[in-house]
Amino acid sequence: MSSPSVAAADNELEWRAIATMTRLADGFTLGFVVSDLPVLLDETPARLAAALGEAAVATVTLRAGADDADLLALIGEAAKPEGVRVVLVRGADAVLDPHGERSSAAFARLNFNRSSLAVACPKPLVLLLSTWAMRELVRSAPDLWSWRSGLYRLGASAEEVGDLLASLPVDAAADVRSRRETRRVLRHLAGELEGADERLELEALLRLGRVESLLGDYDAATEHYDRALQIATGLGNRTTEANSLLGLADIARMLGDLDAATEHYDRALQIATGLGDRTTEANSLLGLADIALMRGDLDAATEHLDRALQIAKGLGQRTNEANSLLGLANIARMRGDYDTATEHYDRALQIATGLGQRTNEANSLLGLAEIARMRGDHDAATEHYDR
Questions:
Q1: Location of each CATH 3.40.50 domain in the chain
Q2: Around Cβ 250, how many Cβ atoms within 10 Å?
């Protein structure tokens, strides 16, 4: 993986080369800009506009499900203005989809109608796409690919890839569309990083397992957590080993394999305790508490939740604090200790409201509503249910 300064210098040369191709081209010319870092593809139109002039650059964005007529119409319309010297095309990743989520044969059909493309756009045409989309285009439209006059690659330093990984949404708050886009980016990054940078590869695999788990693709998530676990164990990377085990434990728990989940949580807890990794320790305890509750062992669940709560409070981790309080509140309610349950629900509600965590907020209100209902306070119960 190149250094930041080298990557930046190489990218500058590539952008200049694209501008040079545009200046020298006489009529239709096909070029490709390839990068697995979306921010670099996003920056390309501005770079060319700075070199050629704002009016000289037209950008069109393809949408999933587009057919060849749509592509020709969009590209042709963008190329019409006399001052336009180059047409940039974004969105090939949305049209070319080897995973079947956004399938289109548009580029395959254009493969046999290249002359129509040259007529529609009698000036340079540059496609901006990721490595996997380039490979899919080569497979589905080899003749179109063979028309290329330029192939430009925008690289990224390890620092830039790390920043990208950290920026991708992999939490439960992200919507399904964002999760799918994150999965697509992570799949490509994990493939590119394999054997190149083990630290970043592990980070990509862990995040990929997380987002696939949120999407309900447990087989794929398990595969990536297993790969991360294998690599981390071989490297002696105990922190990632514990996090991989946590991911596998969560999946086993959701699938109802409580024995496997317990084994993974126990191993993660043991590693985290030895490392002094209090966050992973707390997450392992919360998982073990869930399993104890599913098995009806309220004493064990309470013990795990108490420990998790103390760790969360000590670290100032408000989300885990709220999760622990909700668990303790549920146990107190099941035992008929409504005063303690109400106290825990109230604290969890206050934290969740402050953090804007709607799920925990709703669960706290439901718990308070149930207690009010069991106490015969129907007005309070209705108020909580309505909220």
A1: 4-153
A2: 22
**Residue 53: band (very low, low, confident or very high) from pLDDT cuts 50, 70, 90:** very high
Indicate if the pLDDT at residue 1 is higher than 60: no
Q: Is 358 buried (19+), middle (13-18) or exposed (0-12) by CB count in 10 A?
A: exposed
Comma-separated ranges of CATH 1.25.40 domains in the chain: 331-387
Q: What is the DSSP letter of 101?
A: S
Domain 4-153: top CATH class: alpha beta
Across 91-174, the runs of DSSP E, i.e. the strands, are: 124-129, 148-153
CA distances from 292 to 191, 206, 264 (A): 38, 26, 14
Structure-token pair, residue 164: 């990208």
CATH topology of domain 331-387: 1.25.40
The span from the CA of 290 to the CA of 324, in Å, is 10
Pairwise CA distance, residues 53 & 81, whole Å = 14
Nearest CA to 347 out of 370, 366, 324 is that of 324
- Tell me the percentage of the chain whose pLDDT exceeds 70: 92
Q: Measure the CA angle with vertex 79, ends 73 and 83; round to 5°.
A: 155
Q: What is the mean pLDDT of residues 350-377?
A: 90
